[in-house]
Amino acid sequence: MIDKTSRYAKVPSFVAKDGAGAELTVLELRETPKATGVFFHTPSEGERLDHLAHRYYRDPKRFWKICDASGELDPFDVIMPGRPVLIPPNK
């Protein structure tokens, strides 16, 4: 079950079979929305995505909005101390 606040909440699902023939319910690919930033934040050592999400959105679980705006595939590659991070609007 996917939480209603998840970025995957509105992504359709379908049934597929695995290698053994068992049926699995899987999500379709989610298109990353084009994000326009409000401003850039330059992280310091020790800052994490959830810290930024809490600071700017008051919800650490919304870290994925910052990930989507970054273009990085791995969330751990989004924050590098000293490299500006795009902070998108909280819509």
Automatic annotation (TrEMBL):
This is LysM domain-containing protein. It comes from Sorangium cellulosum So0157-2.
